[in-house]
Amino acid sequence: MTEAPRRLVLGVIADDFTGATDVASMLVRAGMRTVQVIGVPDGPVPEADAVVVALKSRTTPAADAVRESLAALRWLQAGGARQFYFKYCSTFDSTAQGNIGPVAEALLDALGSDFAIACPAFPENGRTVFRGHLFVGDELLSDSGMRHHPLTPMADASLVRVLQAQSRGKVGLVRYDDVARGEAATRECFDRLRAQGVRLAVADAIGNDDLKTLAAACAGLPLITAGSGVALGLPAVYQAQGWIQPDAAAADLPSVGGHAAVLSGSCSTATNAQVKHWIEAGRPALQVDALALAQGQPLAERALDWARPLLAAGPVLVYATEAADRVREVQSTLGAGRAGQLVEDCLAQVARGLVDLGVRRLVVAGGETSGAVVQALGATQLRIGGPIDPGVPWTQVEGRPLLLALKSGNFGTVDFFDKALKQVG
């Protein structure tokens, strides 16, 4: 018996590629058939319960981020989505100019809506929000490694203050006291904030039950803005409304042979530890240096020449990951934008070459790097598989025997690279 076509329920607009797979993983693990597309396609929306549009809008100029996000919204609206979700990083990566506030307000305007929450909490990965302040583990965001981020350094843990600086409308707070009292109390809080003229409200959440409460309270809102955490509660909301029927096989991906490799462009604390773990285990690794790239050295070609004889014996790592002090030194010489672009272009070229050499299982660390690699490989649609670690699933490039694990720089245990490759090995 042929399965009935899936009607689109949730349309997600993600501001980077790893964030897109992160939220898609949350939906898939609860049985929602989910497809991720790269950029805004020209064709029809795929048949699925949820479709995630992956943009590279986190660090672009705010006007460009708004334009791209609105294009994604129009495409998802044309596909019949019932609710929309603007997904950003669980560490609220942004600048004083945006892009979270400008994009969220533009989406509200386009939907004719007057209110949405903002909640980056992801307790499974140590991101919690209390009294409007974001914690990374036991540290305030402003005390964490994110204060050294090369593109979006986060020096203020007060999300109300950060979001207000980016927003035209008034920003408020959904306090934990209300969330802890359940769905009805949380909706009452929404109503009070609306009456006060609040348009965007940072929402406290310290556990998964809080995320589920927020998801249920947002059931009647056209737009949710959040990290991936709130998505955890949405499938149950949609099932209760009769909009979806969970699919136990939603996360199944085919087995794929061939070689395996890891590319790492992230300079986060977590990724530095993962690269160090790989090297200390005696695994083959080669570093590419932004200053050498700026001098015109052909590091991508050298990396492929180095990897070619090694791949048959096991996976290799090509990385540009550096400690924070070295990143600052390189940026002071080249500028942050040029340094990042040089590394992205190099690792994208390496990715194409590795696939030509027979790599079929590729782990990529870093949001900007993942975006560059996916585009270089010509991937336009990804099927979402099960999680490796919270927020990081394996994906399959639609129509090709190629698996990708796109990891946010801040995510994953110290042995993430080994764990990921063993899962599909």
Helix content: 25-40%
Instruction: Return the average pLDDT rounded to an integer.
Output: 94
Strand content: 15-25%
Overall number of structural domains: 2
Oligomeric state, counting identical vs distinct chains? single chain
Structural class, please? alpha/beta
Please name the fourth-level CATH homologous superfamily of the largest domain: Putative sugar-binding, N-terminal domain
Helix tally? 15
Work out the number of β strands.
18
User: What is the gyration radius calculated from CA atoms?
Assistant: 21 Å
For the termini, the CA-CA separation is: 33 Å
- Tell me the major beta sheet: 15 strands, mixed
CATH architecture verdict of the largest domain: 3-Layer(aba) Sandwich
Question: In CATH, what is the class of the largest domain?
Answer: Alpha Beta
Principal-axes geometry comes out as: globular
Query: Which spans of ≥5 residues are poorly predicted at pLDDT below 50?
Result: none
Describe the fold and architecture.
This protein has 425 residues and is of the alpha/beta class. The chain has two domains: 10-240, Putative sugar-binding, N-terminal domain (Rossmann fold), CATH 3.40.50.10840; 259-423, Molybdenum Cofactor Biosythetic Enzyme, Chain A, CATH 3.40.980.20. Helices cover 38% and strands 21% of the residues. The strands form two sheets. A 15-stranded mixed β-sheet has the order 9-10-5-11-4-1-3-2-16-17-18-15-12-14-13, with helices on both faces. Helix 6 crosses helix 7 (208-217).
